[in-house]
TrEMBL record, chain A:
GO terms for cellular component: spliceosomal complex; U4/U6 x U5 tri-snRNP complex; U6 snRNP. It comes from Mycena indigotica. Keywords: mRNA processing, mRNA splicing, Nucleus, Ribonucleoprotein, RNA-binding, Spliceosome. The keyword Ribonucleoprotein applies. It comes from the Eukaryota. Transmembrane segments: none annotated. This is LSM complex subunit LSM3. GO terms for molecular function: RNA binding. Belongs to the snRNP Sm proteins family. Its main location: nucleus.
UniProtKB/TrEMBL annotation, chain B:
InterPro entries: Lsm6/sSmF, LSM_dom_sf, Sm, Sm_dom_euk/arc. Keywords: Cytoplasm, mRNA processing, mRNA splicing, Nucleus, Ribonucleoprotein, RNA-binding, rRNA processing, Spliceosome, tRNA processing. Component of LSm protein complexes, which are involved in RNA processing and may function in a chaperone-like manner, facilitating the efficient association of RNA processing factors with their substrates. Component of the cytoplasmic LSM1-LSM7 complex, which is thought to be involved in mRNA degradation by activating the decapping step in the 5'-to-3' mRNA decay pathway. Component of the nuclear LSM2-LSM8 complex, which is involved in splicing of nuclear mRNAs. GO terms for biological process: maturation of SSU-rRNA; mRNA splicing, via spliceosome; tRNA processing. This is U6 snRNA-associated Sm-like protein LSm6. Residues 20-92 form the Sm domain. Residues 1-24 are annotated as: Disordered. The keyword Disulfide bond does not apply. CDD domains: LSm6 (cd01726).
UniProtKB/TrEMBL annotation, chain C:
Residues 6-81 form the Sm domain. The chain crosses the membrane at residues 66-86. It holds the Pfam family LSM. The gene is LSM5. Plays a role in U6 snRNP assembly and function. Binds to the 3' end of U6 snRNA. LSm subunits form a heteromer with a doughnut shape. Belongs to the snRNP Sm proteins family. SUPFAM superfamilies: Sm-like ribonucleoproteins. It comes from Mycena indigotica. This is LSM complex subunit LSM5. Keywords: Acetylation, Membrane, mRNA processing, mRNA splicing, Nucleus, Ribonucleoprotein, RNA-binding, Spliceosome, Transmembrane, Transmembrane helix. It is found in: Nucleus.
Amino acid sequence: METSSIQEPFDLIRLSLSERVFVKLRGDRELTGILHAYDGHMNLIMSDVEETIMIVDEATTAVNVRDDDHEISRLIIEQVAKRKVEMLFVRGDGVILVSHRNSVLCALPLKSKQVSPPSRT
Amino acid sequence: MDDDQEQTPPPPTQPTHTGSPTDFLKGVVGKRVIVRLTSGVDYRGVLSCLDGYMNIALEQTEEHVNGVVTNRYGDAFIRGNNVLYISAAEAL
Amino acid sequence: MASQILPLELIDKCIGSRIWVVMKNDREFTGTLLGFDDFVNMVLEDVTEYETTAEGRTKKSLAQTLLNGNNICMVGTFLLLPYFALMPRQLIPGSDGPDASS
């Protein structure tokens, strides 16, 4: 990505048009899909979308805080729902982050992403 | 997460004393920063640019949840309404 | 009403002083105020972030920081009045911050 071509944050989105992007949404949701359009609210039009919904059970998480048990961690991880949507409008106020899906750097598998025990130091 | 009143207009550009948010942001572009969201998630990376809504473009971004790296992004756009603070992670 | 002090004037007088910022959620910050804007976005220096959770209070040190005004609830100073001494957990005048008395 040519850094010099980015003058404002929205340029990053503009350069991602027609590309596969990763979108992090409020409510523990993530999307990957082809970005077709956006506006100043970050409303998005995406196609060929896969939505991932992380179902984080509060009770299970709480147990996980107390003892860093692998079994429990796995339990949380597997509560993931996925679905595919052909064409999607995303309302901008739910958007947290937009990035390139095909970036070499963002290759961490989904499984390990959710381990992160909420340890308090 | 309460997401009620968004800061609609971009911040005024009247010249103020040094130390204003605008001055801080001018000084911090191109530097390593920590962006904390209201959810408590941290993004660490190089601040490429931002706008009046505190929308942020970050390079070499690492996502930290409770001190653990949970994701990496080459470039990331962060929508400003989620931002709690932007903190310099290197000398200004 | 012309002589009435505007809230933002009061904050302006805090520039250069250590202040204490309470957010809408269970988060607090202390730091030296360098500047702010009309949204009460604030630039702070030598910042400590406090987060109160079920497991207790966590503390984190930060360098120069722009705090988004959107989530700010209250702003206090460390110098003002014995009034603050009435809040035992939080502030005692001249103390180092919310955790000084804990």
